[in-house]
Design a protein that fits this description.
The complex is a heterodimer of chains A (524) and B (268). Chain A contains 25 helices and 10 strands. Chain A is of the alpha/beta class and 524 residues long. Chain A has 3 domains: 229 residues, MetI-like (MetI-like fold), CATH 1.10.3720.10; 97 residues, D-Maltodextrin-Binding Protein, domain 2; 177 residues, Dipeptide-binding Protein, domain 3 (Roll). In chain A, the strands form 3 sheets. Chain A has a 5-stranded mixed sheet. In chain A, strands 8-5-9 form a 3-stranded antiparallel sheet, sandwiched between helices. The longest helix of chain A has 35 residues. With 268 residues, chain B is α/β, with parallel strands linked by helices. Helices cover 42% and strands 23% of the residues of chain B. Chain B has 13 helices and 10 strands. In chain B, strand 4 and strand 5 form a beta hairpin. In chain B, 40% of the residues are buried. Classes of the chains: A alpha/beta (524), B alpha/beta (268). Chains A and B meet through helix 6 and helix 7 of A and helix 2 and helix 4 of B.
Amino acid sequence: MDSSESLWQFMHQQSGKLLQQTVQHIGLTFISLLITVLIGLPLGIYITHNKTTRRLVLGVAGVLQTIPSIALLGFMIPLLGIGPLPAITALFLYSLLPVIRNTYAGISGVDPGVKEAAVAMGMTPAQRLFRVDLVLAFPVIMAGIRTATVINVGVGTLAAYIAAGGLGEFIFGGIALNNTNMILAGAIPAALLAIVLDFLLSLLQRTGAARRKVVLTLLPLIIVCLSSFYVLPMRFGSRLLAGFTPEFMGRRDGDIGLQSVYGLHIRTVVISDAVMYEAIYKGKLDVISGYSTDGRLKAYDLVVLDDDKKIFPPYYAAPVIRRDVMQRYPELAPVLNKLAGQINDSMMTALNYRVEYLNQSPEQCARDFLVSRGLYQAARNGRKGTIRLGSKIFPEQYILTDIYAFLIRGYTDLQVDSKTGLGGTKICFEALINNQIDCYPEYTGTALLAILHPPAAESQRLAGNRDSVYNYVRRRFETIYDLEWLDPIGFNNAYALMMRRGQAQQLGIHTISDLAGYLKTNKR
Amino acid sequence: MIVVKNITKTFGARKAVDNVSFTVNEGENIVFLGTSGCGKTTLLKMINRLLEPDSGEIWINNHRIVDQRPEDLRKKIGYVFQNTGLFPHYTIEENIGTVPRLLGWDKAKMAARVSDLMEKLHLPPDQYRSAYPHELSGGQQQRVGIARALAANPPVLLMDEPFGALDPITRASVRKDFKQLDELRSKTIVLVTHDVQEAFELADRIVLLDKGRIVQQGTPDELLFEPAGEYARNFFEEQRFQLEAGRIGATDYPALIRAFDHFRKRQH
């Protein structure tokens, strides 16, 4: 496969979306930069005169920047919800330090002789600030603004997690979908954007004293113009708002299928599944792409819309294991298969509910479950070898991994090394084929559509049938990757569209076709 | 006229200026002379309120300087720095025009004034008007510094070691052109230096300072021929012959011989 050609093809095909995301990204970058400068610059000026606040301000801004960016976004959600507001706020807080620090450093770095001369000539404090200090500190302040801009472009990709758009939509979609071209289609423009903006600002930074006045008047105008990128293209569309995960957006059994099979055209934002349920519960979203066994379905009183045209294939979970490991430890497969057929949909939902909503530890749930099924045995603490178990980054996978860990420790002389939280499908799968882990639970539908990518006719043929999909992925994994699928655990964690129970009843929507029909007749 | 009454200024535990009083008459050139750390620059900076005294009062033309807004006071007082203090982001024209612009002069008047000063200080306006300070030599920069201080025609001029950073040859040349400025005739000038030769060349009256106190004040002749004590006598000893020869003039033979005898005695 010529990957460079297909990257171009991908970007060409998706050029409309790419342009929209790039424009959004630029807007997001500059709107938060604008706020950063509006607040950081005066603050930086103020602390040049005030020693006690200087320590406080630089300290607080410094601490803010040490918070991991994804965590900062996380903190924003309970306070500000999802969408542009928390994203802009997080970016603003994140880029504050370089602007404040460089303003302070720039002004206090002005030659004291020149400062004294300005006083001696009879300039007022304001005249000294605007005619001397700021102009002479300009290169240093610009360096701070440059740093802030590059930070914003980089951290801005994370905005896609909380429905604020930008190039992160492609990046995270690509990671979740095991689609390198999609990752690159987001990552390359983001990197180029950072490089180009950094270069342009470096030109401004080097402007001679004579033209600084021009720059100082034009720059704010430019920033305001670019900020408006984010605000202006208010998307017109349906009355209801959908929040789909990056993965769902790019899957044939996701948004693409909804559009082509159901003709469902809904206004959509991209959002991380970690915050999606809370967002729909609070009414920020009306439709989400959830998982049918998710515990929060129960917690937030959501209903699953019936997939009446069967676009979501079955997602039966089963452990996938490296063949070399299975041959080395022949006792392993029977032990893992002890779980086969043991957990149905409602049991899995209940387990997920305990972890996601009641905040119990996955390990505790796993142990309780095994005890209740009479499968629990105390660890043998054998020393025969170590099995490395992986999991994707959501509770259901943690629970399954812990159950398998108890089984292996209790029934064999093997040790377990759990590598949980390996991001999306791509990261987990790559880890498995690159011998970083030995085994992880995968879903048949995901393996089919996100890893194997069969031709459309093939997946059409398989569609909906539990056994044919399982057999297909099992055969293909064996021949292509030397990986073995063990027996399915029993439950089907399929994709599902969900709505709040109250709203769905009020609008009389029970199936996805109902939703598509409602949207057609109720255009805004 | 500047009247300084009982001025004291301390930095931490150190008394930089200790109960100093003196008067500078209208149009007089007065020089603060002393070694570094004697308080002469501190004293100068209190006259335009770059520093505020701990106690005492300063009057300029019968007004207490603390009764005026410092910005207004400073616009009426020219100030020349040892290290020029030119604005690196301003052209020569903008540097010289700093105070006139603050005072709101119109453009034509400002341009004419800048050209006039540049010519008087031997800086060809066409060549240097649009140049930036870093493109000029040290001597030329100091000429711009002097022009900037004089631009708005202030009645008072404060100069802090204005020629101190220049090499001897440049210093002599800038000082010569400075002395020939007719603008200075009517001005009250306070100049700070540690250079005895310079003090004698420029001063109507010298205030000799040591450890924040006035040791002696008087005309150059008084300081030279009637020193008020050991410190004053020793201060001029090194250059006494040269200074005395300069003061007396080449025709006053008896005085010259007396000075030479004195010089020879000191050699033995």
